[in-house]
Specification:
The protein is an alpha+beta fold and 325 residues long. 30% of the residues lie in helices and 17% in strands. β5 and β6 (107-111) form a beta hairpin.
Length: 325
């Protein structure tokens, strides 16, 4: 059965919650989270022999901070074996409030950092490593041989993030990749009216933040400023808004794909107090350009919340608008 990413996540969590208090998974934390994902969604994922091994397999997508809902959360932990303590690790599934449902002495729920206070049979305590989004786990083929589309999963998993950011710098290569994604967006009659400025210099960031009132993205280690030129594509038709909107969406997806979070700030920047114009002046932007949007970029520090969306059939249909009865 083909489920959406949201449905897969909810199915997995519902299955796991139904097993609260179950002692049969004691010592089998990886089996618990894999069963939750596989059994509830009738799929198979590529498994490993231990939580630590799984963590290594997904290291390319490993992230730190508060895990997002449905993520696989990993810890280092020494476990007993015939040859003495071995780091087999520990793991669980993230809920939407920073807590983790996991199999310890029984299936239980703890805050993802409080898991570190638990004591293993070896006397060791779990040490938080990070989390992997469920989209990465689902990158393998389901049992029916149909590969999931990682781009569609990425689109469905993107969220607007307005919380605080970790101080971890964003590498220039990542900022360049994000901007390249933006510039690859289509533009009306190929007029290419959108330009971009990435800001990662702390002093320049401080100057820009001083004019953004009330503040947004004030803890982000980088931001991307979106510029537009009001150029007519043909006759009196100007598609600048469509152009930079397409560029912004591309960048939001690239930001998510690289493990960061962001939010589309436009109304606040282009309001009557002309914050965008003040920022443009600080950046030395020529008068023929308008600064219309700011995208903070960084690793999330706070919980990433999912907004409630209307059902598909309330907003999308086939062949005709539905008849109102």
């Amino acid at each position: 059965m083909n489920y959406s990413l949201t449905e897969i996540t909810h199915n997995m969590i519902d299955w796991a919650m139904a097993h609260i208090g179950d002692k049969s998974y004691a010592g089998w934390c990886l089996s618990f989270i894999e069963d939750a994902l596989e059994i509830s969604n009738d799929i198979e994922i590529f498994g490993c022999d231990s939580a630590k091994e799984s963590c290594e397999m997904y290291r390319d997508a490993l992230r730190t901070g508060i895990p997002e809902q449905g993520a696989f959360v990993f810890y280092d932990c020494l476990c007993p074996s015939e040859d003495g303590p071995v780091n087999w690790g520990h793991c669980g599934i993230a809920l939407d409030d920073g807590s983790v449902i996991h199999a310890w002495d029984k299936v239980r729920i703890d805050h993802y950092l409080d898991v570190e206070a638990l004591t293993a049979l070896t006397g060791d305590h779990p040490k938080y490593i990070g989390w992997v989004p469920v989209t990465r786990v689902l990158a393998e083929k389901p049992h029916d041989g149909e590969a999931r589309n990682p781009l569609l999963d990425l689109i469905l998993a993107r969220r607007s993030y307005r919380g605080k950011f970790q101080s971890t710098p964003v590498p220039r290569d990542d900022l360049r990749s994000i901007m390249e994604a933006g510039l690859a967006a289509p533009s009306g009659c190929n007029k290419q009216t959108t330009s971009l400025i990435a800001v990662d210099d702390p002093e320049m960031l401080q100057k820009l933040r001083a004019v953004i009132q009330p503040p947004v993205g004030e803890t982000a280690p980088a931001m991307i400023c979106v510029l537009t030129q009001r150029i007519c594509a043909y006759r009196d038709r100007c598609f600048a808004v469509r152009d930079y909107s397409a560029a912004i969406e591309n960048m939001l997806l690239a930001i998510k794909a690289l493990g960061y979070q962001s939010c589309w700030y436009e109304g606040h920047i282009t309001d009557v107090d002309r914050i965008g114009a003040q920022m443009a002046k600080i950046l030395g932007v020529p008068d023929e350009y308008e600064l219309v949007c700011v995208l903070p970029v960084g690793v999330a520090l706070d919980e990433i919340r999912s907004p409630k969306k209307k059902a598909f059939d309330e907003r999308a249909w086939f062949n005709a608008f539905p008849t109102v009865e």
